[in-house]
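Check these lines:
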Amino acid sequence: MISVHDVGQQQALGDLNRFRQAFYDCLTTRTDGLFELADAVLCTDGPVRTLVGLSLAPEHRRGHGGLYDAINNGRIEINRLRTALATLPLPRAADGRLVLAVDVSPWLRPDANTCPDRSFCHTYGRGKNEHRMIPGWPYSIVAALETGRTSWTALLDAIRLLPGADLAAVTTSQIRDVVHRLIAAGQWHDDDPEILVVLDAGYDAPRVSPTCWATSPSRSWAGCGRTGCYVGRPHPACTTPTAASQPSTGPSSSSAPRTPGAPRTRRPAPTPGCTATPQPSRGTGRIPG
């Protein structure tokens, strides 16, 4: 259901059956139409190019009119679905630790001029290997990572980022809510290894980590940002807003032109209690639920 490495087919089928029932209960309006539409999306061979094509799938037992009615008038309780996802068997690391990854993935909508709240999404390798800004909907996604060389993940949450959204604030709240749901679902207990949260270098981890630590039942956090790496409980001086923990409003000192003959600006010494290291390739955070 979640991983190709699952052992015990009967248990996997039982988990799948329970989740299908939980997902069905999350649908509050046009329940059967939405449920069959979800089955059609999952079971149709090849990419889904048109909605009307899904009505031809054997799993969708209604006409194309019922399909559009389910999309236009159907309703789903998102919070109930998030709770159901948190109760599923989740992949873990070799030591039994939950590893959560947070990243932004865009749903590109360049031709949907009437769709509200579109943003410019940074894309890679489009056209002649160019990086372009294309209108679309960016989503912040949290997933539980699988171990080994596999692309399988267990998606736990997705939030659409509105234009001008504060990514650090959204990420902090999202991680906290996911961890709370995992605790409520019995996925983490006091004697379990701390949950590892993985962020890429695009996140302002020195700004995210103290806030997340202070507003969630976490005991330690390791965050890596542009200027250093902070491990363990944040030192009080580390939680004070600094130039490294606030969004940049102008060119940095490293990129600003220097007057010939002027002395070079020396980096400030690390704050006592904070460990500064060279910039890593990604940021990580440890949260024990």
Remarks:
- Residues 7-76 form one domain.
- Strands lie at 27-29, 75-76, 99-108, 119-126, 130-145, 153-160, 195-200, 223-224, 229-230, 282-287.
- The two ends are 24 Å apart (CA to CA).
- The longest strand covers residues 130-145.
